[in-house]
Design goal:
By secondary structure, this protein is of the alpha/beta class. 38% of the residues lie in helices and 20% in strands. The protein starts with a strand and ends with a helix. It binds flavin mononucleotide.
Length: 204
């Protein structure tokens, strides 16, 4: 049974990134009626930030962890298990202050785990996740940051997510951006329409 992990991060009921990620998931479910979808909204679920005791538990060898440390890692372990199980990863990401919401970064900090999702080797770090995962990232932005223009330097979403997912061995990533969402009127509608056309053209 194929598994899709669906992570949204906007708190807005009228969220464009959430709408686009949901449209993709619906399309995927049509193609994979036996598929399983695991969904989170990192902002609505108020994922915690890492504190000192969680860091201590991360860096204590599994066999030496206290009961309290195991409890401390329960959420991170669950999120990592979901990531390992997923064949397809889908993200809905609003652009906030040029980057991703802090709650999505909190999810990333909970799943980038030495010994679980990557490991240290003599030649540097190496991913531990099963190979072959595909990721789809649907962003919504107030402005426009086209590739190969000076404005693209302001986009701190796509380069960061590409790099951190690449670090985990996830190389096959499709980005679809709904731009101009703060311009209103036709410009905003055109940004969504273009993204929806790109979703319709995807083979899933
Ligand atoms: C706190 C906050 C910060 C934002 N920062 C940016 C930004 O840096 N650049 C930009 O183009 N749009 C920015 N916007 C506009 C949002 O990206 C836009 O409204 C988008 O539609 C939000 O995604 P959502 O519809 O999925 O919630 C910001 C919006 C908010 C609420």
């Amino acid at each position: 049974m194929p598994t899709l992990l669906h992570i949204d991060s906007s708190p807005r009921s009228a969220s464009v990134s959430t709408k686009l990620s949901a449209e993709f998931v619906e399309k995927w479910m049509e193609q994979h009626p036996d598929g399983r979808v695991i969904h989170h909204n990192t902002t609505l679920e108020k994922l915690p930030f890492i504190d000192e005791s969680t860091l201590g538990a991360f860096f204590t060898p599994a066999e030496a962890r206290s009961t309290e440390q195991k409890q401390q890692l329960a959420l991170s372990d669950k999120l990592v298990d979901e990531l390992i199980a997923a064949d397809v990863l889908v993200f809905g990401v609003p652009m906030w202050n040029l980057g991703i919401p802090a709650s999505l970064k909190a999810w990333i900090d909970l799943i980038v785990r030495a010994g679980r999702t990557f490991t240290y080797t003599a030649n540097g770090v190496a991913p531990l996740l099963p190979a072959g995962k595909k990721a789809y990232v649907f962003t919504a932005r107030g402005g426009s940051y086209p590739h190969d223009t000076p404005a693209s330097a302001f986009d701190q979403q796509e380069p960061y997510l590409k790099t951190i997912f690449g670090f985990l061995g996830i190389q096959e990533i499709t980005f679809i951006h709904a731009e101009n969402q703060s311009r209103g009127g036709d410009a905003s509608l055109a940004g969504v329409a273009k993204a929806e056309e790109e979703i319709a053209a995807l083979a899933v």
